[in-house]
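As a warm-up, study this chain.
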Amino acid sequence: MSKAIILTAFLGVIMLCGLITPVDAAQMTFRTFSETGATEEAEIKFQRSVIINYDDGGQLADQLRGLKISKVFSADSSTPGVNELRDRINYFLKNTADSSAVVTDIDIDYDTTLTGRGLNTSIDYKVIMTLHLSHHIVRDASGGTAGLLDMDWRGVAIDGPVVLNVRGIDNEINLPISFIADASPVLYSAVQGTEAEVILNTPLIDASGIKAQPLGNWHFLFDPTGINVDASQFGMSDELAGFVWSSYTMGESSLREGIQTEKEKSATFTTDKTYDLRTIESADAANLFVAGFANIDPTAKKGTEVVGFYPEAPEGFATTSTGGFPMMIIYGMAGMAGVAGVIVFMISERKRKYEKTHTEQTGIDPSRLRAAGTSAGAGGYQTNRGESYLAGEDYAQHRSVYDNPQVEEKPAEEEKQESTKGSMPKGWKPE
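Now compare it with the structure written out below.
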């Protein structure tokens, strides 16, 4: 009974994991070389899809079918409105996030497309924001003291409109309804004053989900490949070589982190027909790469997350007397691979022998057999028989017993003498 319960639970976990959706809504990537005073880049990508369904048709459906409008542009500090966005982010970091990090510059890539189809219209939003960060290194590593990296900045979120003037045209990039107002005034008028308008006013620039997941729940990985003298052979660039790297990854569904699911909101609005509107975002994801051996600082004050790092490997952990990568680890990995190969070979060989003994024919090759007809008789009854013999041999050596007479022959002297007297009727008696 207990085994059945365990098996059922295991299968349930597998099925649940199969329902997990890939993540790429608020997706952050940040790599730091852990140098005080350096300015480093953190890329945060925001994505969302809006779908309007009109299965029953309608005037709005007629307006949207076949419509395709895109807005694509890039912006930097020379673009009016970017510096204002930078200042708003810094205000958020200082007053809301309580972070020491400062954004010195921002690069923005904006890409949004409306596509009208037969039964629905989709609007796909993508905003890529590259933050140039400084003052995120709170303390350098020195002697036996670890350095400190401030990570409270990672939950960047901006409310309200964000207007950038690109080539003399104002473009609002934070509220989805702004693009709809420009691309389809008919759709914009239809959602005014409805619950759908509230959903379409939800900001795109919102990485609060990344901050909400504690760093202690992120997956940790240590990679010493960079200190190997042949690091380039493992695909590591010259820029990353010479360092050991610690990585933290967020976004995987697990019992520890929780099940990552899509963020979905829906509403209806009515004009000539009732239309369904739905917004979809995948779960948040993030990757943090730190040069050095990293660990979450347990002494940080409550509500603050700081990562401690040390540039050198612990004594005897990843270095040798020559300063190279420990050959023991390499030999151990090679040995494990060799053992696995031997096991696979033994299993394959056993399977081959089993199939050979159980599936291959043994005995006389049928192609060497030849047929010969035989017969035997008993009175007037004749039976036809056949038998086989090996090719290249004399059939006389293998003649069947059926070639001999099957009726017993009696000697001539034992044969009955035929009576010369007649027979009398039954019941006759002499008088």
